[in-house]
Amino acid sequence: MNSTKIAVVDIETTGNSYKRGDRIIQIAVVLIEGKRIKKTYSSFVNPMQPIPPFITELTKITEQDLDGAPVFSDIAPDISEMLKGAVFVAHNIQFDLPFLNGELTNAGYREFSGAAWDTVELSRALMPEAASFKLGDLTEDLSLDHDRPHQADSDAEATAELLMRLHKKVMDLPLLTVEQLYEQAKYLKSDLELFFAECMNEKKNNLSDLKQDLEVFRGIALKKKKPIDSKTYPEFNIEIESFIQQLVPGYQKRDAQLEMVDDILNAFNNKQHAIIEAGTGVGKTLGLLIPAVLKVSEGKKVLISTQTLQQQEQLLVNAEKINALLDDAILTTVLKGRSNYIHMLKFEQSLKDADRQYDTVLAKMQLLTWLTETETGDIDELNLSGGSLLYWNRIRHSGWYLEKNQDPWAERDFYSQSLLKAEYSDIVITNHAMLAADKTKEKQSFPAYDYLLLDEAHHLEETCRKQWGVRVDYMKVKFAINRLAGSNEDGLAEKLEMILRKYSIDAQLLNPDNWERLHQESDSSFYQLGHYFKNNVKRQKGIQKHSLLLNDVDQGGWQHVKYSFERLLAELKACLKIISNQLEQLGKKKNKLTVQEKAVIEDAGSLCMEWERIIEMIRMLFIRKHEQHVKWIEGDLRSVPGSLIIVANEMDISNKIQQSFFSNQFPSAAVSATLAVNGSFRHFIEAAGLRESALIVKQYESPFDYKKNVRLMVPNDLPDIKSVTAEEYVEWITGHLAVIAEATSGRMLVLFTSHEMLRNTYELIKESQQMEDFVLIAQGISAGSRTKLSKNFRKFDKAVLFGTSSFWEGLDIPGEDLSCLVMVRLPFSPPDEPLIKAQWEKARSENRNPFQEVSLPKAVLRFRQGFGRLIRHENDRGIFMVFDRRLISTYYGKAFTESIPKLRVEEKNLDECIFDIEEWL
């Protein structure tokens, strides 16, 4: 970069497409030479058309700002001159460069055709752990000045600073890594191989020693592993309240939190199990961790399990704060499943594959950078694209087919390191999915523990059911077959054949007939399944994703499906037998094999294990009889058979849950903010196979003043949801949402129970332009994860967030960023959902009320979780608006209102609601 002229460009426009008539409203150019900013240029541009309200909301650029601004043709000579002989740099080249070229051509100037560097691509390669690659998020992560995001001059300067910071990062990497990044960069979309070539030459002219914390092994630079020492930790005594006071800034005493700690300790000391509900604001995280720490002081080991990876990290961060106060007296680690970790031998081999697929190339670059930084080798540290995850599936850890000592990377293996660290740790943090999956294995991964703490325990039954169930997915079956069959150079069968020939091993080979039969039977079986699904599913208007319960449908038609899968099973077994025999023969030559050949065998071995799982699941679904299982098909009618999944879950898993999590081997405490239905824990206790008389059961209400800080309103001018069509209901709620959004100035979360209704509402609002002054962010429509969408929501003054499924819980938007929560419907699961339907039938057969026993408790708990999004801190205030009049018109409505803090239900028309909202907020 020393001698290169660089032009960093950013533009703001009236929309996304120059071809559709959108135009530039602001442009900025920052010229860099010799790694220094030499010149900055910025100008508003008259687009000769109005600025859409959304653009003004995003950029804060108004019509008044453009008064007297030049048209683009007036400034085109200056822009063209600055770009002459330069490398064009932008944060998302695919947008800025075509747009600018359109304007230049229109003004009678030549398009820019020189080298171009995209700082989005560069950031992905060099900052693989960044949560987001948006410019504003990157500058925040790097503490760069960026005071006016979405204005061209501020964005261009921030992009220039970002480029120079990324250049510095490359210069800090080992030369070997930079050379490898250069080789991969040849296949990126922008011309970043030139960037890496310049960095490479610069490094060669200023060679330096490898950093002390890095090493090079087998041609890959990575961070050295820290030794894990087994040591005896000193005992320590803490006074609980003063200890919490040191941990929490601005601490205010919470009696419930201190009682929760006592309850868990009493349960553990008396070898009992505890079931505890701790409302929002009780301080559940420390309420869990303090008892764990006190048990560690007695020389005991504690396992904590929670639901999400984000919650695992939150527990770990708080555990590390505690440890800092105890002078590093305890060792805490997070333990995840094997497939979360990179298999270094497979990765090494993959670097030699000439795979030019874009997502794979970018993933390799991210991994090369990341290996110089990571101490864990855990994929959750990375921000990989969806396409890159297919590549990760090839190089993730799946155990060893050959003995571990045959892997030259064994001593540096990340997964083995995580198990060793867990063995020596006092507190191990994991998630319910991994813990439940581990309970089914003959040899369990978790080290022995004395106490078990189950956080977010309301998820336990559902997670166990998924982990212990059976699932055959069309896409996964086809992917597994194609990886072996390999019509491309990745085909493992072909690679194995080459190794067999090299060592003159006489083993049966897969031939074209094997492949043809296998592909034919896999296509035929899922075609039959799709045909059966379409013929038997009860179609619902406007809904594409359907499910079909198999326990009570046409058995005659099912026989054709069954026979098809039996034929597929026979072909899979025949091919697997041939490959397994080849691997067995090659295993006898293990001492002669090259490392590259061992990597191929490991890859094929892990694929064989995947095939074995698929074979076992097909057996379970189509051959064996399981009276206690519920079977169903899921699929999208627009893409059959591609979307098909067939599932079997056990109906009653209460005994298994009890044996796995609440046995007599160790005391357990199950904790959540939502376990009780109308003050009763019966629903959870029965699902866990427990008896209340043998438990410590406690409920701690939130300390927040909900009566003072929350208004609960139900508009009485909305129709009953069952009295109108889905389309009419969407029209009604759209009008209501637009008016409420005006009254609350956005800052509104709208919770739906179905994605179809969410999408239809979002599209009608967009089409009608009723909320054109607001930024609308919708789950499943707007790009990004839940965390990313909620972060974007907080950025804008006037924003509305539409959510379903996962947005009903775990979303934390404190303060004035969220002032209004709208619940469109009471969250009952659809009665035709397979598991619910089967549970209803079982309840009826046992003369129990299925609505009261199955549907209502689940809906009430979901309702409580949704309500919990509104008030996150004690000073938060907000409106809770429920559009579903069943809350006040039905006998069971009280089950919902009595499950949340006591609030007066205000039933009034929309105008009255709006008047009250404006007055109150």
UniProtKB/TrEMBL annotation:
Coiled-coil residue windows: 569-596
Any single GO BP term: DNA replication
Signal peptide: none
Segments carrying motif DEAH box: 455-458
Annotated Helicase ATP-binding domain residues: 243-513
Gene3D superfamilies with a match to the protein in the record: P-loop containing nucleotide triphosphate hydrolases, Ribonuclease H-like superfamily/Ribonuclease H
Chain sites annotated for binding ATP: 278-285
Transmembrane segments: none
Matching SUPFAM superfamilies: P-loop containing nucleoside triphosphate hydrolases (SSF52540), Ribonuclease H-like (SSF53098)
Keyword Transit peptide: no
Keywords (A to Z) from UniProt: ATP-binding, Coiled coil, Exonuclease, Helicase, Hydrolase, Nuclease, Nucleotide-binding
HAMAP family noted in UniProt: DinG_exonucl
UniProt similarity note: Belongs to the helicase family. DinG subfamily. Type 2 sub-subfamily.
NCBIfam families referenced in this protein's UniProt entry, alphabetically: dinG_rel (TIGR01407), dnaq (TIGR00573), PRK08074.1 (NF005981)
Name the UniProt record assigns to this protein: 3'-5' exonuclease DinG
Taxonomic classification: Bacteria, Bacillati, Bacillota, Bacilli, Bacillales
Gene name in the database record: dinG
